[in-house]
Each structure stands twice: as structure tokens, then as C-alpha cells.
Design a protein that fits this description.
The complex is a heterodimer of chains A (about 180) and B (about 180). With about 180 residues, chain A is mainly alpha-helical. Chain A is about 85% helix and about 0% strand. The longest helix of chain B is centred in the middle third of the chain and has 39 residues. Chain B is built from eight helices and no strands. The chains are: A mainly alpha (about 180), B mainly alpha (about 180). Chains A and B meet through α1, α2, α3, α4 and α5 of A and α1, α2, α3, α4 and α5 of B.
Chain lengths: ~180, ~180
């Protein structure tokens, strides 16, 4: 139980000071868990992080669960995960309570017209980064284009398209690429 | 019952969204098409707030969406739903870590999964763009101005790769001055 509480505390701190999600969490994990507490090694963190990226779910959450499990078993996994999300719940709930009132302000409304454009640019930049890593040949480029078109035109549940992608990978991926 | 619906819907997102926080956006879009809990532009505002506050973007967006639907408890339940699959999946993988990493089938599935995840997020970006640029609703000159601002912001993001909050603040200033 002591381990679990320590994990909750450490990941609460990481969650509260990470700006920008999964990728931004790395330096904080290094500092808090590798340098200060010595719970994991830098190499282990990289491995867990890689798994956290390729498995479904939020990268920061997956990485916290992984480190929590390694350090304190299932209880450790649960407490580390709750720790990393707790600051979000507090901060966002506080913002959400006043958000609608703030949005009635004319200037804020205008500001958000500009902000929405930036959100599109941020998403585009995220997609390009993902594409650079994953579009490595004709098959992967085709899968990207087909899924983009299907989602834009008939917008089925993303789950369906994700499953099709995994099956296509099993069928078309050659041995040397695996 | 609304809390159960929230938990289950966010559980689905946690189980299937591959590619981090942005990957939750297409799922959130699907949710509002299904339940009409909020509007498309409210969703974009939520993403902007989620990107500018501490914590994981996907978790922040889930809290906000849950709050909009059923206040504080709604926010908590949405997050619990979102993280439940991670706990199950990661604990299983952590247990069989080395075997999982070297497994040929896992590698092959991810070869196909990653480009599809990028495509899904790209499509979400397109529909967010339709709302943000006012395509089909606003004057053509306004649409072109917004599109140009978006392009310039994109190149700034790529060139300087500062934290998203920097560009969001810049967008706010542009909005106040120009719109």
C-alpha cells in the first residue's frame, strides 16, 4: 500500500506539471522516477513509452500504468494511473464550471474564432508527424489515404476502420517489415 | 442512465483510440453525432482548452466532455471509462512484455494500424476545419482569410515546434484583432 500511495503522489505531480500530453511527460518521468527515486531505468522508461504509444488509449495513461505495474503490481498500476489523471479532473472541472460564462464575453468569443483555426493546424501537424513515422511503403500509404477518405465521406465508427487496419497489416505486412 | 452511458462510451474510446490524445477526437465527434451532447464548435473549444492546460490532452478532453454532459461526476466517470481499458491492456502486456514485443503478429498488425490511425485523425482534422474555417456558412473572403491563417500557423508549428499553448495564445490574439 505504501508503494501504491507513493506512485499516486509521484504521478500526480507528473500529471499536474505535464503540459501537452504524452510526449511532454518524458522529461518529468526522467527527473521524478529515474533520477530522484530510482524506480526505473532510463531504458525501461523508453521501452514502456514505446509500448504506451502503440497500444490503444492515452499515451500518458498507458506509460503510468506500465511503470505502476512494474513497481507495485496491479494495485500500483491502478494508483499510478489515478495519480496521473487526478490533476486533469480537478483543473478541467474548475475551468468547465466558468467556461460558458466566459464564452458569453464578446472578446473571448472572437478569441476562440482564432483559436479554432490553430486547433486545425495543430491536428494537421500531429497527423504529419504520425504519417512520417508510419507511411513507409505503398501499402501503408494506401491504407492512410483509404482510411482518410472513408472517414471523411461515410464516417463509420473509427473502431471499424482501426480493426480493418490491423487485419490489413496481418495480411499485407511482409516478413522483413515486421 | 447517463453515468453508465458515459462510462461505456469512454471505455470504448480508451480501448480503440490508437495514437494518443488527438486520436480521441474522431471518437468524440462520433459521440456528439450520436447523442448531440454538444456542438462541433464546442468540441473544438474543448480540444483547445485540453491542449492548453496541464495533463494529458485526451484525459482533459474526456473530463470536459463528461462535465458538459453530467457535471463533476460526469467528468470523473468519463475519465474512469477512458482509463479502464488501458489498465487491463497494459497490465496484460506488462506481464508478457518480452514476448509481446517480439511477436510477429503484433508487429504486422501495427504496420497496418498506424497509417489507419493517422488517416482517421486526418479526417477528424478535415471536419474540424470545415467548422473552424466556416466552410459553407461564412463569406468566401472570410473562408480564404481563415485558411491562410491556418496555413501560416501550420508552418510556424512545424518550424519552431513550441508548446501548443504558444500557438493557441497567438490564435486568440489574431481572433480578437481580425474577427
Amino acid at each position: 500500500m505504501h508503494d501504491a500511495l507513493a506512485l499516486f503522489g509521484a504521478f500526480f505531480k507528473i500529471g499536474a506539471f505535464t503540459f501537452g500530453g504524452g510526449y511532454a511527460m518524458m522529461p518529468l518521468i526522467q527527473e521524478e522516477l529515474v533520477n530522484k527515486r530510482g524506480w526505473v531505468t532510463a531504458e525501461e522508461v523508453l521501452d514502456y513509452y514505446a509500448i504506451g504509444q502503440m497500444t490503444p488509449g492515452i499515451i500518458a495513461v498507458n506509460t503510468a500504468t506500465f511503470i505502476g505495474y512494474k513497481k507495485g503490481g496491479i494495485l500500483g498500476a491502478i494508483f499510478a494511473t489515478l495519480g496521473v489523471v487526478a490533476p486533469s479532473i480537478v483543473i478541467i472541472t474548475l475551468i468547465a464550471t466558468v467556461f460558458d460564462t466566459i464564452m458569453e464575453n464578446n472578446m473571448v468569443e472572437k478569441a476562440f474564432l482564432g483559436i479554432r483555426i490553430v486547433v486545425v493546424s495543430l491536428i494537421a501537424s500531429g497527423v504529419v508527424a504520425l504519417a512520417k513515422k508510419s507511411l513507409i511503403d505503398k501499402v501503408t500509404i494506401s491504407l492512410f489515404v483509404i482510411s482518410l477518405l472513408i472517414m471523411s465521406v461515410i464516417s463509420p465508427s473509427p473502431i471499424v476502420v482501426i480493426i480493418i487496419g490491423a487485419v490489413a497489416g496481418l495480411i499485407f505486412c511482409k516478413e522483413e517489415q515486421a | 442512465m447517463i453515468y453508465l452511458t458515459l462510462y461505456l462510451e469512454f471505455f470504448k474510446i480508451g480501448a480503440f483510440a490508437v495514437g494518443g490524445g488527438l486520436a480521441t477526437i474522431p471518437f468524440l465527434q462520433e459521440l456528439i453525432e450520436k447523442y448531440h451532447w454538444i456542438t462541433q464548435s464546442e468540441l473544438i473549444d474543448i480540444v483547445a482548452v485540453a491542449e492548453s492546460t496541464p495533463g494529458a490532452v485526451g484525459v482533459n478532453a474526456a473530463t470536459f466532455m463528461g462535465y458538459k454532459v453530467a457535471e463533476t461526476l460526469g467528468g470523473i466517470i468519463a475519465v474512469l471509462g477512458l482509463i479502464s481499458p488501458s489498465i487491463v491492456i497494459i497490465v496484460i502486456i506488462a506481464h508478457f512484455f518480452n514476448r509481446f514485443r517480439q511477436n510477429q503478429y503484433v508487429k504486422k498488425a501495427f504496420y497496418g494500424l498506424r497509417p489507419v490511425a493517422a488517416g482517421i485523425i486526418g479526417a477528424a482534422g478535415v471536419s474540424v476545419g470545415v467548422v473552424a474555417f466556416g466552410i459553407g456558412t461564412d463569406d468566401i473572403s472570410i473562408q480564404i482569410t481563415r485558411l491562410l491563417i491556418g496555413l501560416i500557423m501550420y508552418f510556424l508549428i512545424e518550424k519552431y515546434s513550441k508548446h501548443p499553448i504558444v500557438y493557441i495564445a497567438l490564435g486568440a490574439v489574431i481572433g480578437i484583432i481580425l474577427m
